[in-house]
Write a structure and sequence with these properties.
four-stranded antiparallel beta sheet; two-stranded antiparallel sheet; 4 domains; 12 strands; Hypothetical protein af1432
């Protein structure tokens, strides 16, 4: 703001600058102001001034007059009052660091009051009540031990309320605010969601990506494809996708954009839609970070992934991609949401097919996705987010690289499970046995192939084995191959690792007793083929080549 005839912009009118160091004035000019050892004692009466020689005396003087200079002290006073009042009432408040920080900086002589609003407003969803009080009024709504909102709330004032007028005034204000919210709630919840779909045509999703109506039409088809994989009703999923964005046309979401999705869930529930549809609409934007909750019900999972797939494909398609330092459209969070939802629901989805299908849907609607490397960039982007997820799960770095070298987006959950299980046993005897067996085989194979003109073509001939050690290893490899031929996405990773670890005896006996670099070229090639067969069989689990040796 500006004031008077001055050009200075500041949050509040600046009247003086008090600047002292070692009891001396630090003199400087800032616009029309010159620093001094003086400050005003009253914001309304400029003739009341006082000089100070150090901060300690400055702070004590004001504290003696009821003004708390120290921000941390103000915070302690507020929190202590909160605990006292809430403890007596058996209530609690939401953790809202941003709000408490704002309130601490709005007052210099904090005083906490417990106020009430009319109980009739408790029929309005608690999210509306909470946002109305927190965002508009900087109040703290209270909740009982069942996490139900009550009609009592806390306010932080800047002075004592000796006559009770401050409490009365704030209760009148919140009643007026909640009356407006109640009006919008009663109006919006009766608006037929199916009929509201056409209104989305006038709401732009993003330049170059069409309207929200276009978006939900694409989402209908993507969600239908996912429903086939999850074996849920395609008709129901398509209805869900059609109405999931209609709350964007409501007055409540217009007033509180934070409520989008949640309000759609409430509206659909009020209008008699199935509970899983209402829940899916309310959870469509989840998860919103690394630690937020993840949708768990099939319809919720479907809608959440559908929305994020369409968003990712669209923005990457028009080259609105994150940079190393900026991500204004929160696409990293969107990608991580897809990964978390899939992994934490223990499902594999054909993400590559969904990405490709989604880009075709944009083309079908006439939107030109100019990014010619769209599919590859999306795969790389999701792969990078998967790496980030694995790091946050404290998976060892070489296991991460081994996982990423041989993984497919279509097998996200399986890849995570393999990495997690291997990470758990890597330093146990099982992990040591697996790693030492693979490393011994791959190192010899690499060494022999480096200086050898023999071409390996995956043809091991057991008919020319010269020892039982070759036969035993060959049999062991075939046992593992047979095991892998019987499993699909339901692999028991712990069992797989145990089976791989059990090969150590045959592997070490082979290398201890069989000369690989045989003079006879046919025998040498056959033994190299056998070793190559062993390495490839291990790689059914993960690319062990990227793992560091146990003693490294």
């Amino acid at each position: 703001m500006k004031w008077g005839e001055f050009d200075l912009n500041w949050g509040r009118p600046l009247k003086s600058i008090l600047s002292i160091f070692d009891k001396k004035i630090v003199s400087f000019k800032f616009h029309h102001l010159t620093s001094s050892n003086l400050t005003f004692l009253d914001k309304d009466f400029e003739e009341k001034k006082r000089s100070f020689e150090n901060f300690k005396k400055y702070e004590k003087f004001f504290e003696d007059n009821g003004v708390i200079i120290n921000q941390n002290k103000r915070l302690k006073i507020i929190n202590k009052s909160f605990l006292k009042i809430l403890g007596k009432k058996g209530l609690k408040i939401n953790e809202n660091p941003k709000l408490i920080d704002e309130v601490v900086n709005l007052v210099d002589s904090p005083n906490v009051l417990l106020c009430k609003f009319d109980k009739k407003f408790l029929s309005v969803p608690k999210e509306i009540l909470t946002l109305t009080m927190e965002s508009h009024q900087k109040y703290f709504p209270t909740f009982n031990d069942k996490n139900e909102i009550t009609n009592e709330f806390l306010i932080v004032t800047n002075k004592k309320d000796k006559k009770g007028l401050i409490k009365i005034g704030n209760e009148r204000v919140v009643d007026a605010r909640l009356s407006d919210a109640e009006f919008f709630w009663n109006k919006d919840k009766t608006q037929n969601l199916v009929k509201k779909v056409s209104e989305l045509k006038s709401m732009n999703f993003f330049k170059g990506l069409g309207s929200y109506f276009d978006k939900v039409q694409r989402m209908r088809k993507i969600s239908g494809m996912i429903s086939d994989e999850l074996l849920i009703s395609k008709e129901k999923v398509e209805l869900l996708a059609s109405i999931c964005k209609t709350d964007l046309t409501s007055d409540l979401v217009g007033e509180f954009p934070e409520l989008q999705g949640l309000m759609g869930g409430y509206f659909s529930e009020y209008q008699g839609f199935d509970k899983d549809i209402s829940l899916a609409i309310s959870e469509q934007y989840l998860p919103i970070g690394l630690n937020s909750i993840v949708p768990k019900k099939p319809f919720s999972v479907t809608l959440s992934i559908t929305d994020k797939i369409d968003t990712l494909v669209g923005f990457f398609g028009i080259n609105e991609k994150p940079t190393s330092s900026k991500d204004p459209l929160a696409l990293r969070r969107v990608a991580l949401g897809i990964i978390r939802t899939i992994i934490e629901n223990k499902k594999n989805l054909k993400i590559n097919d969904l990405l490709n299908y989604s880009s075709r849907l944009y083309d079908d609607q006439g939107y030109n996705l100019e990014n010619k490397d769209l599919q590859k960039e999306l795969e790389d982007f999701l792969k990078d987010r998967f790496r980030y997820y694995l790091k946050n799960k404290e998976i060892r770095y070489d296991i991460i690289e081994a996982t990423l070298s041989s993984f497919s987006l279509n097998n996200l959950f399986s890849s995570f499970e393999k990495a997690k299980c291997l990470n758990k046993v890597i330093n146990t005897q099982i992990g040591i046995d697996i790693n030492s067996s693979y490393k011994r085989a791959s190192n010899i194979l690499d060494h022999e192939m480096k200086n050898n003109e023999i071409e390996i073509n995956d043809t091991t001939d057991p008919g020319i084995f010269k020892s039982d050690f070759e036969k035993n290893l060959y049999k062991k490899i075939n046992d593992i191959k047979k095991y892998y031929s019987t499993i699909n996405s339901d692999e028991n990773c712990e069992k797989s690792l145990s089976i791989l670890a059990e090969t150590k005896k045959e592997v070490f006996e082979f290398f201890d007793n069989v000369k690989v670099n045989e003079d006879n070229e046919t025998l040498r090639k056959n033994r190299l083929e056998l070793i190559n067969m062993l390495c490839k069989t291990f790689q059914n689990y993960i690319n062990f080549r990227f793992l560091k040796a146990h003693n490294e």
